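HOLO CASE FILE
Compound: uridine-5'-diphosphate
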Amino acid sequence: MGQFSERRVLVTGGAGFLGTHLCARLLRDGCDVLCVDNFFSGTKGNVLHLFANPRFELLRHDVTFPLFVEVDEIYNLACPASPIHYQVDPVQTTKTSVHGAINMLGLAKRVKAKIFQASTSEVYGDPQQHPQAESYWGNVNPIGPRSCYDEGKRCAETLFFDYHRQHKLRIKVARIFNTYGPFMHRNDGRVVSNFIVQALRNEPLTVYGSGKQTRSFCYVDDLIEGIVRLMDSSDSVTGPINLGNSAEYPVLLLAETIIQMTASRSSIVLHPLPVDDPQQRQPDLGLAKELLHWQPQISLQEGLQKTIAYFQQILSQ
Ligand code: NAD
Ligand code: UDP
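Model generated. Tokens follow.
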């Protein structure tokens, strides 16, 4: 695992939720880290604590424009991940995934860097196969409100595999399932942070639809370990590989659990289900176990405790 390796690593989207954790992890591993972000859904405040490390650099840049830097590895995370954020400017979302991938792949080709892509379980759309294995091609609406994200990420995967076949690039593609933890923005809009913030404020928890739809929630530390293992795996391991937690929960049960864990006085209110909201989602983690010897270690209870503690702290400021 490259302890004190002096690798020069570029992390796009490095000031976002996952990017912040990844930059911190890579610094702990002794890498030089260049964090690139346009602060669309991430913040400078997230990475403030990393500035004390002289190996850390931050650059404001939009990945839809070319970037020329000398690096050994690229983690391409730039893209808003929360539906409310990626639907604000859907054209920019597709551009970020597609032009961003083209620019980062072009850079990787030029400097012969290994490149990781943060793909998503959304490439499976509203899946008709359960749990979802990497061999499943998905059930995606190409023209709906989620399509800018889903199809942008699918096109990015296509580009990664074409650069791999055509230009022999070393690629690593992870399909990330719902992940949560500290450094999610308080207004992120995704379900775990929404429910925790609402519960801590004793406001009603907003369950969309009946709440019977399911998701599988992975704590961020587990995910980051999986991402780093994938990047460090042998060149023959390209992915796509599912990374997430296979424990599946209905959204309503998540709301009840968070109310109970925060001893909140909140009620639960039902709102309409957003268009094309997938009914169920659970990763088949067989490939990750086999190729990366990885599986999540942190239970939902334990992960929620840490995340609740984080939000208690930032909401009291
Ligand atoms: P996030 O929104 O917190 O972080 C994304 C970061 O990318 C932000 O800092 C944002 O400012 C930056 N960004 C957006 N557009 C950019 C652009 N054009 N140029 C430069 N920077 C840009 O989301 P996250 O949860 O940290 O997700 C990180 C990556 O992982 C995303 O690519 C997302 O699609 C993927 N992913 C995340 C999850 C999850 O559950 N967290 C699940 C599947 C996939
Ligand atoms: N959701 C909800 N209330 C919220 C936010 C989300 O019930 O305040 C639901 C949403 O409709 C979806 C699930 O929780 O069924 C996960 O939503 P999220 O936006 O976190 O991620 P994604 O839909 O991309 O998996």
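CASE NOTES: Residues 12-13, 15-19, 37-42, 62-64, 77-81, 96, 100, 118, 120, 176, 178-179 surround nicotinamide-adenine-dinucleotide (ligand 1) (CB under 6 Å). The radius of gyration is 19 Å.
CLOSED: yes
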